[in-house]
Specification:
- This protein is of the alpha/beta class.
- It has five domains: about 35 residues, no CATH class; about 80 residues, Immunoglobulin-like (Sandwich), CATH 2.60.40.10; about 80 residues; about 290 residues, Glycosidases (TIM Barrel); about 100 residues, Immunoglobulin-like (Sandwich), CATH 2.60.40.
- It contains 16 helices and 32 strands.
- Strand 18, helix 12 and strand 19 form a beta-alpha-beta unit.
- Helix 8 packs parallel to helix 9.
Length: about 700
């Protein structure tokens, strides 16, 4: 092996094992003894770990503004001395660091929390030192022998004088007087040692000493960990998806953005706060798909909105049939008046006749026959879509242009973007783009539509996506749901991956819905809305219970027949149609109950029937508790015994408490640890129950056995 290669190999090994700090010494002379560290070797405190952390601090932990950020540090020292531990946090770019004392719980685990007041990027770390005064104070509390107390009082007087030297004004005077009193008391053989000990442990003066610690041997964790704080909608949101071109009131007539505006009151009345529309840009004519994804479009076929770009423009333009930029601006404003935000679809791909194809041919992959490689996801083929080549020599201009697309729509008032297939684009591009956008606009939210391998989905979340699609659509049994959502609510994923669950999408009609049973649509709705703080439905297909799949060669596909992706549809928009009343009630429950607005407290409960699934969520302060039970069998009534220990709710075991079913307004009085459940799917396949701890009189409530 050549010497240069050997040294390179050694350097890589050292970096991998010990970090970059040791490399310079190794390069200088691998045989030389290690020099003493530049740091003071007398510093004995050890900050062994700081949690939460994502990949050692490579990526940011996520929270929302106003949310408690709980930090845990593992700190200790040799011997029996007492460390003092402080949490530091600050907003990036600020020179001021906030500092909070951390408290020991057990097993060298120290805890503190802070609240980041506004969206943005923050940092936090932990510092610690061995505190001579705290160590003395701790030992003094345990002293019993009179002689030990007298000697310890003199030792304490020395530490207090040292603190006085760091103080000023009245604080200095107070501490010097205290030290003198301790010395005098220790020397006075007539002074009762119990009184001397009480003087030494004086709480008010102890508090003064603590304000002037000796931090010259302070150590730091060594990493300033990143924290991204977003607005509440990143953690709690209810999405409704519709195709603008199908929003009109007449069959066969292309809908407009003004038609969408006319649907806003219904969307808001159902309780949705995000209205998501597929791409609203010009649709390519070259290789346009026909109805049901046929390769040849007939005259009048409208094509797929995801085939973006034509002679009218590309990602920064509107499909003329939908209306004007003024119509879009009015839609955004009207939605905000109703408490709804418009979410734009970002699909970074092009139709063959997108202006980019001619203007920037190097941004695409060209095959030997002179054509561009279209998108594929075998067995699916997307002949009407050209993917970008993120390995282009002109990649920097490509990145800038794609980011500018997002900037254009932010300028029109859009603050939420659902990104189509982000896993098929460069990860480095997303980290840069999302970072730049959120640095300028920290209130912007990105949803990753990536139904792909778990590690890839998690990487996208780490790179900056606020929310992520999930496998909920394909998790249908009790075991599958329990395992999957337990995984989603455990560290480290819970600190950066926010699930957004959908029972259907324009691309996905799961086999469970293809039977058309109303109970399945209802149960999947309740599961989505209560298991996850972020959820959505593709409507009106869902609430009107569309269930027919596209069939090819006798095999049902996992997609809709006569899909809106390729044609106009005409829908019933009446407020009481299909499942709209139930959806409205579900969203009312979500908004009224803080427990359902976060995922961290999710806990599955034992129930002795595999057709019944039960789980509980509670608010951070524990005052709001929601217990949900769902019958996963759409045909049969199922019964079971649910285990719920009332003591976990702060209720004595023999005390009755009320369970208020928020779906039906029924009220049950429970007592003890085991509770009978009966759910008829032909009536309603779920309970969503709020715990009422205090009863005035059991006779005031209905009883159900």
């Amino acid at each position: 092996m050549p010497p240069s290669k050997g040294l390179s190999f050694l350097r890589e090994a050292i970096v991998g094992c010990t970090g970059a700090e040791d490399v310079a010494a190794a390069d200088a002379d691998p045989r030389a003894p290690h020099a003493l560290d530049a740091a003071d070797g007398r510093a004995r405190a050890v900050v062994d770990a700081v949690l939460p952390v994502v990949d050692g601090g490579r990526f940011a932990v996520k929270r929302v503004a106003g949310e408690c950020v709980a930090i845990e540090a593992h700190v200790f020292t040799d011997g029996h001395d007492v460390p003092r531990v402080m949490l530091q946090w600050w907003k990036e770019g600020s020179t001021r660091r906030e500092e909070l004392p951390m408290k020991l719980r057990y097993n060298d685990e120290w805890h503190a929390s802070f609240v980041a007041p506004a969206p943005g990027r923050y940092r936090y770390t932990v510092v610690a030192w061995v505190d001579a005064f705290e160590s003395w104070h701790h030992e003094m509390e345990r002293r019993i022998e009179p002689q030990d107390i007298r000697i310890a009082a003199r030792v304490g007087a020395q530490d207090i004088r040292a603190a006085a030297a760091r103080a000023s004004g009245s604080d200095r005077d107070e501490l010097e007087a205290w030290a003198a009193a301790l010395d005098a008391g220790a020397a006075d053989a007539d002074m009762d040692t119990a009184a001397l000990k009480a003087l030494a442990l004086d709480e008010q003066r102890t508090a003064t000493v603590r304000r002037f610690p000796d931090r010259q041997l302070q150590v730091s964790y060594g990493a300033e960990l990143p924290l991204v704080v977003e607005r509440l909608r990143a953690r709690f949101s209810s999405w409704y998806e519709l195709f603008p071109r199908s929003a009109g009131g007449e069959p066969g007539v292309h809908g407009t953005l003004r038609d969408v505006a006319a649907r806003l009151p219904l969307v808001a009345a159902m309780g949705f706060d995000v209205l998501y529309m597929p791409p609203i840009h010009p649709i390519g004519r070259v290789q346009r798909k026909g109805r049901n994804n046929t390769l040849v479009a007939e005259p009048g076929d409208v094509g797929s909105p995801w085939a973006i770009g034509a002679e009218e423009g590309g990602h920064k333009a509107l499909l003329p049939e939908l209306g004007t930029l003024e119509d879009f601006q009015a839609l955004v404003a009207d939605a905000l008046q109703l408490g709804v935000e418009i979410a734009m679809d970002i699909a970074f791909q092009c139709a063959p006749d997108h202006p980019y194809v001619k203007e920037h041919p190097s941004w695409f992959r060209w095959r030997p026959d002179g054509t561009v490689q279209y998108a594929e996801n075998p067995p699916k083929k997307y002949q009407d879509i050209y993917p970008f080549n993120f390995e282009s020599e002109d990649w920097q201009n490509l990145w800038r242009e794609l980011k500018s697309v997002i900037d254009v729509w932010i300028a029109q008032g859009v603050k939420i973007f659902r990104v189509d297939n982000p896993h098929t684009k460069s990860f480095a591009f997303w980290e840069w783009t999302i970072g730049e956008v959120k640095r300028e606009h920290p209130d912007v939210i990105f949803l990753a539509e990536a139904f792909t391998r778990p590690k890839v989905m998690h990487r996208l979340a780490k790179l900056g996506y606020s929310q992520s699609y999930t496998y909920f659509t394909w998790r249908n049994s009790k075991e599958e749901l329990t395992k999957y959502f337990t995984e989603l609510t455990e560290p480290p994923g819970v600190d950066y991956f926010r699930p957004n669950v959908w029972p259907n999408t324009p691309d996905i009609l799961h086999a469970s819905l293809q039977g058309g049973q109303e109970a399945v649509f209802k149960s999947r709705l309740v599961l989505a809305a209560t298991l996850s703080a972020n959820y959505g439905i593709y409507g009106p297909a869902y609430e009107l219970m569309e269930y027919l799949p596209r069939v090819t060669n006798g095999i049902a596909a996992e997609e809709y027949v006569d899909s809106e992706k390729y044609q106009l549809r005409h829908w019933d928009w009446s407020p009481d149609a299909g499942l709209r009343p139930l959806i409205t009630r579900i969203n009312e429950i979500r908004r009224a109950n803080e427990a359902l607005q976060d995922n961290r407290s999710l806990r599955f409960l034992n129930i002795d029937n595999d057709h019944l699934i039960a789980y509980m969520k509670q608010s951070e302060d524990g005052t709001n508790v929601i217990v949900t039970v769902v019958n996963l069998d759409p045909w049969n009534t199922q019964t079971g015994w649910l285990a719920l220990d009332p003591r976990e709710l702060g209720i004595e075991e023999d005390q009755p408490f009320q369970m208020h079913d928020l779906l039906t307004d029924q009220r049950f009085v429970w007592r003890g640890r085991h509770h009978y459940i009966l759910l008829d799917p032909h009536r309603l396949p779920a309970h969503v129950m709020s715990v009422r701890r205090r009863l005035r009189d059991e006779r005031d409530f209905d009883y159900f056995q």
